[in-house]
Amino acid sequence: MTSNNSVQVSVLGLGAMGSALAGALVKAGYATTVWNRSPGKADDLVAQGAQTAATAGDAVLAGRLVIACLLDHASVHEVLDPLSNELAGRTLINVTTTTPAQSRELAAWAAHAGVAYLDGGIMAVPQMIGQPGASILYSGSADVFNECKPLLDLWATSTYFGEDAGLASLYDLALLAGMYVMFAGFMHGAAMVAPAGVTAGQFAAMATPWLTAMTGAFQGFAAVIDGGNYTVEGQQSLEFSNLSDLLAASSDQGISTEVVAMVQGLIQRQIDAGHGAEGFARIIESIKQPG
Fold first, then answer.
1. Which DSSP symbol is given to 258?
2. Which residues contact 222 (CB under 8 A, 6 or more apart)?
3. For residue 17, what are the contacts with CB-CB under 8 A and spacing of at least 6?
């Protein structure tokens, strides 16, 4: 990619994320064509300098590089399957959220259609695009990643994980798993204190520094897990980590115990298997081997 003006880019899908991606391209001077299934979503982008296409086919024909940011895996096929001939010889970067298996299937579909394919997992909300802290993970064609990196870096920090098109999605969803479970833990805590007249905002002010500090434990857990020895000294044991009091207090407050019970179940399975004196990190074995 020699200059922004020489690269014709088409963006399919103008939800909040697709609009943010397209807006960053227009702002950087890329000739950008946009398409969305429902009308009206392109108006702001057109005012900024984008071109709008009446159909997805018109959008594909307008750009050598096609960005798909659609609802889901099925939507990608619904939009692109009829356009395989038009896509042949072009480059497709798909940043639609998919599972690793779906990403690999799309890569195989693209290869059959003669399309160079790169898969992306966006670790950001739309407002973060183009800002510090945004990250997008990629896997698939190394040639596409290297050629398009100046464009990709407009959106976020770009990290490439290799030719296996499913790896970006795997990392994306694994990171989201940690995020959503953390969010659920916060909400459980907020629900616990609510009957005492504590607002969620007041609880958040306490939870934020506490949870931030606790992320420092990740590397210690990782070292134990990678070493495969859950008896290393200095760990909090599974028996000490028993969450019965937390479950009882939650019940006393009249709230659901589901979030905490899930963790207690992971702990208890390892205790029942005779590992109660070993470290808390051992619950990963409960996760790796579903009961």
1. H
2. none
3. 69, 95, 122, 126, 129
In the chain, count H helices and then E strands. 13, 8
Residue by residue, DSSP assigns 51-108 as EE-SSHHHHHHH-SEEEE--SSHHHHHHHHGGGHHHHTTSEEEE-S---HHHHHHHHH
Which residue's entry shows tokens 């833990």? Answer: 185
DSSP class per residue in 113-164? HT-EEEEEEEES-GGGTTSTT-EEEEEE-HHHHHHHHHHHHHHSEEEE--S-
| In contact, 247 and 264? CB cutoff 8 Å | yes
Per-residue model confidence (pLDDT) at position 19: 98
Q: Once rounded to an integer, what is the mean pLDDT over residues 235-249?
A: 97
Rounded to a whole number of angstroms, the distance between the first and last alpha carbons of the chain is: 51
**CB of 118 within 8 A of CB of 97?**
no
Q: Beta strand 65-68 with 91-94: parallel, antiparallel or unpaired?
A: parallel
Residue 111 has pLDDT above 90, yes or no: yes
Distance CA 174, CA 245 (A): 29
pLDDT at 75: 97
Question: Residue 56 has which token pair?
Answer: 């997805």
Q: How far is CA 160 from the centre of its chain?
A: 14
In whole angstroms, give the CA distance from residue 156 to residue 133: 8
User: How far, in Å, CA of 58 to CA of 35, rounded?
Assistant: 9
Query: How much of the chain is in helix, strand and coil states, percent to nearest 5?
Result: 60, 15, 30
Q: Is the pLDDT of residue 2 over 60?
A: no
For residue range 55-82, list pLDDT tens digits in order: 999 999 999 999 999 999 999 999 999 9
